[in-house]
Amino acid sequence: MKLRYLLSITTLFAAVFSVQASASCEVTLEANDMMKYSTDLISVPATCEEVSITLKHTGSLPAASMGHNIVITDTANVRGVGTDGMTAGIENSYVKPGDDRVYAFSKVVGGGEETTLTFSTAYLQAGGDYSFFCSFPGHWAIMKGKFEFK
């Protein structure tokens, strides 16, 4: 009886820890009409083979005038990707098509909308210098944060 109880407790702990591990590969991020994300740091474990980021636009303005998205790139490339994306248009989520500096990006959403970006971490290195930002024209300069993969 004690062995069965011990096995049950062990199984329960294993289930709890596996749920926590998978949950840490999923992040929710909010953005508002004041061009601000709810955090300036997203941190996920390097054990995540895939990351999902749900972006919720908590404002009320439409995507055409105050849309937001999330782009993941090397920190050194934020300015270049943001500048090049301005001419890509909303139909390309303000990301230059085929831009190999971009690891992942979401579509642009307006107030009250949300989107989920799911991407492979195969090209990321633990401890790398990564950032996330909004590529809507002009937003990248202030609407950004650090993306930690460690």
User: Describe the biggest sheet?
Assistant: 5 strands, mixed
Q: Beta-strand percentage?
A: 25-35%
Low-confidence stretches: 1-23
Report how far the terminal alpha carbons are from each other.
Answer: 42 Å
List SSEs in N-to-C order: HEEEHEHEEEE
What labels describe this entry?
150 residues, alpha/beta, Immunoglobulin-like, five-stranded mixed beta sheet, globular
List the helices and strands and how they pair.
Elements: H1 2-23, E1 26-31, E2 41-44, E3 50-57, H2 63-66, E4 71-74, H3 78-85, E5 102-105, E6 114-120, E7 130-133, E8 144-149
Parallel strand pairs: 1-3, 2-8
Antiparallel strand pairs: 3-6, 4-5, 4-7, 7-8
Word description of this protein:
- The protein has helices spanning 2-23, 63-66, 78-85; strands at 26-31, 41-44, 50-57, 71-74, 102-105, 114-120, 130-133, 144-149.
- With 150 residues, it is of the alpha/beta class.
- The chain has one domain: Cupredoxins -  blue copper proteins (Immunoglobulin-like), CATH 2.60.40.
- The strands form two sheets. A five-stranded mixed β-sheet has the order 2-8-7-4-5, covered by helices on one side.
- The longest helix has 22 residues, at 2-23.
- The model is unreliable at 1-23 (pLDDT under 50).
